[in-house]
Amino acid sequence: MKAATVPGLIVRSQSGFFTVQTDQGEAVCHLRGRLKRAAVGDKNLAVVGDRVRVSLHSGNSGWIEEIEPRRCALLRTAPTPQGEIRQTLLANPDQLALVFACSQPAPRMRMLDRFLIICEKQGISPLIVANKIDLVDQEHARQLFDRYAALGYDVLYTSAVRGDHVDQLRQRLAGKISGLTGPSGAGKTSLLNLVRPGLGLEVGGISHATRRGKHTTVVRQLFPLPEGGYVADLPGLRSLALWDIQPHELDGYFPEMRGLVAACQFNNCTHRGEPGCAVRAAVDGNKIHPARYESYLRLRAGETDD
User: Fold this and answer.
1) What residues contact 289, with CB distance under 8 A and at least 6 apart?
2) pLDDT in tens, 81-126
3) C-alpha–C-alpha distance, residues 118 and 152, integer Å
4) Taking the CA of residue 137 as centre, how many other CA atoms within 13 Å lie in the half-sphere pointing to its CB?
5) E-state strands within the chain
6) For 24-53, how does the pLDDT look when each residue is reduced to its tens digit (9 = 90+)?
7) Is 21 exposed, middle or buried (0-12, 13-18, 19+ CB in 10 A)?
8) Inter-CA distances, 34 with 39, 62, 66, 142, 266, Å
9) Do residues 61 and 29 make contact, with C-beta atoms less than 8 angstroms apart?
10) Are 65 and 32 in contact (CB under 8 A)?
11) What DSSP string describes 257-303?
12) 3-class state of residue 222 by DSSP
């Protein structure tokens, strides 16, 4: 007889143990062997954010019997001795808060562009969080990030040191499943400690050797918010490769370009130097930010630096 199951959400994953939130409380679960056998070697079989069905037992334990199809996911490629593998960082987020420092470390705008492409492809709402505004003047911060607001992306300027606009960030996270992600050292964990006081998550500093952030987030976990919803403090990233996106698709993930492509003289236009290129004309007419155009060209050429 098939075991009775209840729906749940994976809120924590560590060493083969999955904490699942159900209407009856939290349960620490294992994956059924048949699920693992059906997906041998798939390390992304069950991750934080997955919707599952579990059979519950005494002692707040249970078994994950089913994993529902994912609506979307935050993916990255990770190097291994056997080559690069796909890694799922968070399943089914409603939004991603993309936290970038205005300084210390310097913002890596091409990495932000990569994140936005991933959000566009996956159908995830992005919220750009320009943190550490206490380290720069307002004009400089807006010079960096207002180009994204002009494209329709939401941009929030914050300071974890002074607490600037943390209340607004808390409101934006309420009622949603969100991930805080971005480069190492941008201040994600510091912001989360302010958004949900009492967490006491470890905060890393900046490596003096590399001038980049140190990794501090090691356990995948969704933290419940008092206002409703969950937020994940995702590992700080030092690189971000695009996954399963072809070069000729890229212009479709740049909002300022995709409406112009049909007006190009050639339907296979690469937007570099072809005659009659509507994208290039928009760049020349200051309708596309030159840094965004440069980012597009580098991504199209397959460059992996951020």
Assistant:
1) 147, 150, 256
2) 666 778 889 999 999 999 999 999 999 999 999 999 999 999 999 9
3) 16
4) 2
5) 6-14, 17-22, 25-31, 51-57, 61-67, 73-80, 83-91, 95-101, 125-131, 154-157, 177-181, 220-224, 230-233
6) 999 999 999 899 888 766 778 999 999 999
7) middle
8) 9, 15, 10, 52, 51
9) yes
10) yes
11) HHTTGGGSSSTT--SSS-TT-HHHHHHHTTSS-HHHHHHHHHHHTT-
12) strand
Per DSSP, 106 falls in state: P
Q: Which residues touch 212 (CB under 8 Å, ≥6 apart)?
A: 105, 183, 184, 185, 206, 238
Q: Give the pLDDT band of residue 200 (cuts 50, 70, 90).
A: low
**Any idea which residue has 């937007």 for tokens?**
271
Q: Which of 68-77, 139-148, 242-251 has the highest mean pLDDT?
A: 139-148
Distances in Å between the Cα of 113 and the Cα atoms of 78, 131, 240 are 19, 17, 10
State both tokens at 115.
């994140």
Q: Is 187 helix (H, G, I), strand (E, B) or coil?
A: coil
Cβ pair 165, 156 in contact under 8 A: yes
Q: Rounded to two decimals, what is the model's pTM?
A: 0.88
Which pair of structure tokens corresponds to residue 48? 């934080």
| Measured distance CA(103)–CA(275) in Å, rounded | 40
Identity (one letter) of the amino acid at 194? L
In 3D, which of 70, 72, 114 has the Cα closest to residue 94?
72
For 160, list phi and psi in degrees, rounded to 5.
Answer: -70, -25
For residue 1, the SS3 value is coil
**Are residues 195 and 227 in contact, defined by beta-carbon separation less than 8 angstroms?**
no
